[in-house]
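Researcher: Structure for this, please.
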Amino acid sequence: MTPLPDPGLAPATRQRPTPEPRSLARDEQAVLVEAWSDDFDVDSLLETDSELSFKRPSLPPQVLSKLRRGHWSIQAELDLHGLRSDEARQALAEFLHACERHGKRCVRVIHGKGHGSPGKEGVLRVKARRWLVQRDEVLAFVQATPAQGGAGALVVLLQG
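Model: Predicted structure, token format:
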């Protein structure tokens, strides 16, 4: 066999894209969702108050008042209305993950007031609060102002 003549062209050096471990990301997301407990005792571990607000102990108290006054604009929102508990937990996990990926700092989570729930007590209202305090990227949250959803929503401050 005779080799082909050299045309004098430089070899094509195209870098291949780095592979995305899709199954690894799905597995990690599933672990995060399953690790959240509905029975997490918020009150015994973290600083909370009667207004359904929370802040990490390392943050100054002014963070809550700034969050209540709208110091940070809301960059994204998630509406959990009509979802079952397990669906809401999954949706919240995916939402927080997406917010972290896109650098969102202040978001609103609408959990509803619970008017359609048995006993008129909001199941997701309590559970959303428990789930949020278990996430390291959640720095603080407050009940939304009446114009933002009032007792049916939380304004959440995330790590930047």
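Researcher: Any notable elements?
Model: The mean pLDDT is 82. The helical segments are 22-35, 42-45, 62-69, 85-101, 123-133.
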